[in-house]
Every structure is written in C-alpha cells, then in structure tokens.
Amino acid sequence: MATVNPPRGMRDILPADKARRERLLAVIRERYLAHGFDEIETPVVEEYDRLHAGIGGDNEKLSYNILRRGLDAEAIRAGADDPAALSDLGLRYDLTVPLARFYASNRGQLPAVFRAIQIGPVWRAERPQKGRYRQFVQCDIDIMGDDSARAEAELIVASLDALAALGLEGASVRINDRRVLDWMLDAFGFAADERPGVLITIDKLDKIGPDGIVAELRERGATASAVEAFDAYLRRPQTMEYNPYGEAQIRNALPENAPDEIVAHLVGIGEAVAAGAGSDAEIPLVFDPFLVRGMGYYTGTIFELAHPSVSYSLGGGGRYDGMIGRFLGQQIPAVGFSLGFERLADLLEPQSDAGAQAIVLVHDADVPLAELIAHKTALMEHGRVRLERRVKNFKGLLDRSAADGYTAFATVSAGAAVGALEIKPLA
Amino acid sequence: MATVNPPRGMRDILPADKARRERLLAVIRERYLAHGFDEIETPVVEEYDRLHAGIGGDNEKLSYNILRRGLDAEAIRAGADDPAALSDLGLRYDLTVPLARFYASNRGQLPAVFRAIQIGPVWRAERPQKGRYRQFVQCDIDIMGDDSARAEAELIVASLDALAALGLEGASVRINDRRVLDWMLDAFGFAADERPGVLITIDKLDKIGPDGIVAELRERGATASAVEAFDAYLRRPQTMEYNPYGEAQIRNALPENAPDEIVAHLVGIGEAVAAGAGSDAEIPLVFDPFLVRGMGYYTGTIFELAHPSVSYSLGGGGRYDGMIGRFLGQQIPAVGFSLGFERLADLLEPQSDAGAQAIVLVHDADVPLAELIAHKTALMEHGRVRLERRVKNFKGLLDRSAADGYTAFATVSAGAAVGALEIKPLA
C-alpha cells in the first residue's frame, strides 16, 4: 500500500499556511485587478504536442505526461518508442504556454489590448530540494496586443504596487533589453551564430564573476578578439555604477554609441514607473546590461524583481513578441511579469487577519445539540467560531486554540441564555 | 500541430466568468471559515495505488494516470500489462481520498476534531457533454474526529448558510441514514448479501418510479417475499408526506418499529439545524427514506442539497466512519458535505461587485507615457482603471468597455493636470 505522505517532492498545506497563502493571493489579485488586469483560468493540462513544441526550454524535459485513456497492452508496446503515442496530455510547466494557447483560442472575445492575470499551480519534476517543490504556484500578469512601452510600464508599476501591498516596500526592478545584448555582442565582435551560447555564459555573471565569464567564453572557443573586447569592457571602473536610473547612467553602463531608440525606450519606462510610484522618490529601476533571463523566447525588454532583504529574484519577465504568432499565425506583441509566489510566501511573516476575532466555544458534553448550535450562531456575530467539547486539560485546550489563531473563548453549560455568553480574550 | 482549443472536455474560463467564480468562492470560503472550518490544500496528484484502492468507486476508472518519469522503451514494453508499472501518480478524481490521506499524514499537527475546507479542481475522463467538464471545482467541508451529531449539524448549518450568502435562500436538505436503509431492507426480508444491489436499484427511484424499482428488483432475482413487502410499502398513501420535519413525520415515512436511536439521531439534527437557522421558520430538512447516495463508503447519515429553482441536487455528503481507518490503521469518525460548485456557478446570475467602480481611461496617442501612468495612478483612487488608446470608433470602445464590466470613463490629452480628469458614467 502507498504511504500516507504526499507524492515525492510535493507537500500538503496546513491550515495556518493555507490561510496565509490565500490572504497573500487575495492582496495580489486585488491589486492587479485595480490596475486594469483581468483574471483568466485555463485547464491545468495542455496537449502533449503543445507542451513539447520547443517554447518551454528545459522545462519541457521536466513535464509530467498523462497516459492516453483506453490504451491496451498491445497499443502500449506499439507506442513504447514514441512518447506522443502514449501521452496526449501533460501538466503545464508554466503559465506562458497556456496563455499563448488561450489567447489564440479566445481572441475574438478579448479586448484588443488584453491584460491577463493568471494565478495557479504548475508542475515540474525537478530533483526535490529544500524549499523547492514539484507543484508550486505562479502569479503572472501579461499584456497582449500592445507593442508600446505603456505595456512594460503598467506591468512594472502593478508588480511593485502588489509587492508594496504585501508589505514589501522598497523593491526594485533590474531591467535590460535583449536588443541591448544583441547590439553589445555585435559591437564586441561576436558572430551572430555564437551569440546564444555567449548569452548562456553571461547569464552566470552573478555566480562566477567576470573572470569566470571570460574563462568560460575562451573555453567555448568564442571569437578571441570579441572575448578580449568584452573582457576590457567588463573591467572598466565605471561598469558597476548603476544608480540613479536615467539616460546618463544607461549610456555610462554601455559601450559607446548605444542605439538611441533602445536607450530612449528604457529611459521612458523609468519616467513612467516614477510617475506610477506617485512620489519624488528615486526611480525603483536598476539598469543591468548583463541581465539575460534564461528563456529563449524573449525579444525586447527583460526585467527581474529584487528586494534588499533577499539575494535572489522575487519574480521577473519580459517581452516575447514572437510566441503567439507561432500558435495564431499572426504576430501579436506580448509582455509578461511573473511573481515568484512561493518565494514571497516564504519571505513574508505569518500575519493573521487584522482585527478579525476568532472565538472558541467550549461546551459541556451535556449541552443539548440545538442549544449548542444556537449559541454558536449567536457568537458568529462577533467572529468565526470553533466548537470544542470541554476536556480535563482546559488550559491545554485554550493554548492549542491560541496556537491555531483563535483570539477569544467562551464557555457554555446546558440551559444558558442564548446571546448572553461572556467572550474573554485568549491570553 | 495541436489545435488552439483547450484539451477535449475541458474549458478556458474568460474574465467575466472567472471574476464571478472567484467572487462565489470568496463568499463560500468566508462563510465556512466563520463556522470554524479551516482550509487546507493537497497536491492535485496522488499516488496511483491510493487512487485505485477501491474507495473511489466508478471514479477510479475515470482517472487520468501520469506516466512515470524516466521510463525507456524497454521498461514501457515490460510494463505494458501492468498499469501501476507505467503510472506512479494520477490526477485526483475527488477531494475525499486526498483528505483521508492528508489526515493520516498530518494528524499530529491537527486539532482532535478537525474541520476541513477544501476548494479545488478534480479530474474525471467522462464522456464530454453539455455543462459537464473533465476538470471541475469541488467545494468540500469535512469534520474528522467527531462521532456525534454535532458534526452533521455543523456541516448542514454551514452549507445552508453559504448557500444563503450566495443568494440562494430557501434551500433544503434531503436527509437519510444508511442505518435506516439497512434496517428497512432487513425488515422487508432482503438477505444481507443482496442489499448492496438492492440499494443501487432504490437509488433510481427518482428516475424510474416505484413500478420501475419493483420491476428491476424482480429482474435482479431479489427475494420475492421481500420485493412484495417493499412494493406494498412503496404504495402506502402516506409514504410521500415528508413535511414538516420531525419525529412524527419520520416515523410515518418508515415501516413500523423503526429503531429509536436512529430516529432520535435524525430528530436531533433537525432541532439543531433549526437553531442554526436562528428563526422560527420551518426546519429546512426533508426526511427521505429512499435517499441512497452512490458511494460505497457511507456508514451513517447521508444528505443532499436541494433548491426549489432546480430539479437536480446542488451538493450532498454523508458520514464515512470507516475510510480513514484504511489509511491510518485506527478508526476515525468522519462526515463531509460537498457543494456542487459548477452547478451553483451555472445557476447564479452574473453579478458585478456591488459599488465597485471601474474606469476606462481613453488617452490620445501622444500623451507622454509618464503623464499617462500618473493619470492612471490618480484615477485608481476611485476604482480599477483600464487604459485604452483613443480610436476612431469612440462609441464602440465605450460599449465594449461597458460589456467588460466597466462603469465609468475619462478622457485625457497631453498636458492635462493630474488628478483633475472628469469621471463620467458609462451609459
């Protein structure tokens, strides 16, 4: 017989944690709705072919595949060499592939510029490790049909607002543009066909540092003169002076003669985000010319969410103008921002509902059931109510209730007047 | 390439429908929490062996099985005759099997009497038909560890309260007890080993009527004298006089000498539910001695939720004291009530958030992005805000916005003062 544990790499969510997660999700949902986004939902499974069309990158290898229904042993043996013969469906590994499919399917019913919220679990059969689960929640917002920087500005402002509403003030967004990377690598002299590999190496800058990057590029056999130019550039003293955000700082962080159009695009996003912050505070953006983001589908602006309290990213996203065209046969601009909900949930302190009272009603065993339910109903005027039969260890019962988040208690014996119970605070 | 439609038998949920569903779920969740239930969550997948342990009845055959990761063609051929060799996991087909597993796994961290809320999707590969989907949401509440009628009373009161909060006043609960059915079938003279089959037939009473029942029992070859006794009983004139709920009516609906203990149990639940309703209104219960409920695991009270506006059930449940013992090796009493969320969602009229304003901000194309975002942020003081670039068909844009649930609009040109836009109602 199976164990009573959840499946490997997955977890049960107990009441206190579930309540906290639902509160966080309600805050995020409320903020995103306020910014004009609309929530949608797709099935958790998508067709096998769609999940393995090359868009999902490494995640495709981590997907859970669902066996076709009604296969007999003969059909299974015949299909043993062909995954698509055995599996017609799979659990989604992200919310982006389903969104692109959704948009292609439902476009006629959606506004010309569609701002989507998606909140839901995804599945990846990764090696289990502390704090990482094979089922986890993603919170994505995406804007389809807007090729202007208005889309990037709305996404970043909404994401920072959601984070502030969760109590994480002072977050910032690292920003770059894939077109900046393309131009830089071209300027250094890397050939077009070696650039994807060079980007994979550059993406490790935070982990292995400039020396590691240069060494790895040499190992890769990248064009030697380009590696030299890149090395010299990395060693410029001013490279790491990223603040404050603005045109001078962006130009300073880049090799000379950066394209005006892309610089203006990044500067404009900064001004808009400042306007959304609604104050004269510093613009919460940091230009990072070496931000890469792993997915192959990004085509323009890319960003990552940072907070001073943690070294890892709390979310990120970017523009992927080419993806929907693969499903729809017509190009539709798109840009998205994903919050790392599991990381946020780990980071935020447990908080109970402010001001919400929760009452334990401890009753003698002989209180008639109808009386008991009448007392419970009356107490519910004051907060949520849990019934507990009186036990010998009364103090233990109250302690346990307090640990479960209850803030008050009352006691009742048979024959007490309904509505007249004294509510006492739980110490 | 795959189509852009959702997988067969599943659906996308578009913004208006998603918003409505989330509002309904928030109401249900809020009411259940108020009644002292706590929400939990389990992974959507469970181990294959657990999903196929005989508890799920016919649903086991409808389950989606997940292919083990890392099987090569040889392993697939070797396992072709053994489903468990190919599949280690499956999508859950209900929330009851996962709850029993959860309770067995986490019991040490749960209160002695544990009141669970579970809200989430389940999957069944049924033949697709109108209004039935292969992925659908269930809303369950269950009480573990309470063998008294207090549990049934709390479940029924909470469920009726949730329904009333959703705007469905006037719902009622059909109630019976598996022990009533056992005793009746024994009294008629059915042998113990034929009773499960007889119950399956009786469960069709609503569909095929008394004549159909008797005919089917004869076809089954059930004990002839017992079928005669049952037939005579079904034709008693007073059989269908179910109201008002109370001892006289329960005894009247049953053959003579019904066991006092079970009658008192059902009467007590009625009194408690009346107390929970908090008024002198009629008790919202209907005793139905032929209510069966399909699942094999029920051991005591069973119930179904009815509303005058529809002929089908809106939910139901019952006591299943034997199930957790199968996982835990120790008997734990349990009783549950499941709301048919999809049916509720179909039944309830679309309603927008009362009083919540939603504003479309129509802007000229040349409004600088930072100005535009500043206007949006200022307008968000008054409600949610969607940006729309001005188009030639201005009226069409407003109509479309109204259809999307927006209630007001404003227009803005370059250079307008922030915070000074006029908000006009959308006709």
Automatic annotation (TrEMBL), chains A, B:
<keyword id="KW-0436">Ligase</keyword>
<protein>
    <recommendedName>
        <fullName>Histidine--tRNA ligase</fullName>
        <ecNumber>6.1.1.21</ecNumber>
    </recommendedName>
</protein>
<dbReference type="InterPro" id="IPR041715">
    <property type="entry name" value="HisRS-like_core"/>
</dbReference>
<dbReference type="InterPro" id="IPR004516">
    <property type="entry name" value="HisRS/HisZ"/>
</dbReference>
<feature type="domain" description="Aminoacyl-transfer RNA synthetases class-II family profile">
    <location>
        <begin position="21"/>
        <end position="368"/>
    </location>
</feature>
<dbReference type="InterPro" id="IPR015807">
    <property type="entry name" value="His-tRNA-ligase"/>
</dbReference>
<dbReference type="GO" id="GO:0004821">
    <property type="term" value="F:histidine-tRNA ligase activity"/>
</dbReference>
<dbReference type="InterPro" id="IPR045864">
    <property type="entry name" value="aa-tRNA-synth_II/BPL/LPL"/>
</dbReference>
<feature type="binding site">
    <location>
        <position position="142"/>
    </location>
    <ligand>
        <name>L-histidine</name>
    </ligand>
</feature>
<feature type="binding site">
    <location>
        <position position="124"/>
    </location>
    <ligand>
        <name>L-histidine</name>
    </ligand>
</feature>
<dbReference type="Pfam" id="PF13393">
    <property type="entry name" value="tRNA-synt_His"/>
</dbReference>
<feature type="binding site">
    <location>
        <begin position="297"/>
        <end position="298"/>
    </location>
    <ligand>
        <name>L-histidine</name>
    </ligand>
</feature>
<keyword id="KW-0067">ATP-binding</keyword>
<comment type="subunit">
    <text>Homodimer.</text>
</comment>
<keyword id="KW-0648">Protein biosynthesis</keyword>
<feature type="binding site">
    <location>
        <position position="293"/>
    </location>
    <ligand>
        <name>L-histidine</name>
    </ligand>
</feature>
<comment type="similarity">
    <text>Belongs to the class-II aminoacyl-tRNA synthetase family.</text>
</comment>
<dbReference type="GO" id="GO:0006427">
    <property type="term" value="P:histidyl-tRNA aminoacylation"/>
</dbReference>
<dbReference type="InterPro" id="IPR006195">
    <property type="entry name" value="aa-tRNA-synth_II"/>
</dbReference>
<feature type="binding site">
    <location>
        <begin position="94"/>
        <end position="96"/>
    </location>
    <ligand>
        <name>L-histidine</name>
    </ligand>
</feature>
<feature type="binding site">
    <location>
        <position position="138"/>
    </location>
    <ligand>
        <name>L-histidine</name>
    </ligand>
</feature>
<dbReference type="GO" id="GO:0005737">
    <property type="term" value="C:cytoplasm"/>
</dbReference>
<dbReference type="GO" id="GO:0005524">
    <property type="term" value="F:ATP binding"/>
</dbReference>
<keyword id="KW-0547">Nucleotide-binding</keyword>
